Amino acid sequence: MRWTQSARRRQGMQTVRYRYDPAVGRVVPAGPGARAAGPFVRGDLPGYRSPVTGRWIEGRRARREDLAAAGCRAVDPGERPPLFPGQRNPR
After folding, report:
1. Phi, psi for residue 59 in degrees, rounded to 5
2. What are the residues whose beta carbons fall under 8 Å from the beta carbon of 29, sequence distance 6 or more?
3. What is the rounded radius of gyration, in angstroms, for the C-alpha atoms of the chain?
4. Per residue in 52-66, pLDDT tens?
5. At 18, is the secondary structure helix, strand, or coil?
6. DSSP string, 29-76
7. How many domains is the chain partitioned into structurally?
8. What's the pLDDT at 42?
9. Domain region containing 57
């Protein structure tokens, strides 16, 4: 079974981080509280046509600007109606 990050937290499991230890010559668990050596880089959104303004939106910044210009906001997944009666929305 593949565990997602939120499922790990619910089950009391922790994500294990690893680092390379040159003294041992292999990858070892980094231990609790270990931080990543570099910045976290998140990819940009793919382009799409705005359903409200009809303009082409390319990236997160353009999406924020388009939502603000149209007086809209992003919908939280918990606000959507269930897909089927008696079923929760996937997160």
Report:
1. 105, 170
2. 16, 17, 18
3. 20
4. 889 999 999 999 999
5. strand
6. E--TT---SS----PPPPPEE-TTT--EE-SHHHHHHHHHHHT--PPP
7. 1
8. 82
9. 45-73
What the block records as the tokens of 15 is: 């994500």
Q: Residue 31 and residue 47: Cα distance in Å, rounded? A: 39
pLDDT at 67: 93
Asked whether the CA dihedral 66, 70, 74, 80 is positive or negative, the reply is negative
Decide if 9 is inside a domain: no
In a domain, 20, yes or no: no
Q: Is 12 a member of any domain?
A: no
| Per-residue model confidence (pLDDT) at position 20 | 86
| Residue 52 covered by a domain | yes
Give pLDDT, residue 1.
46
Residue 23 and residue 19: Cα distance in Å, rounded?
12
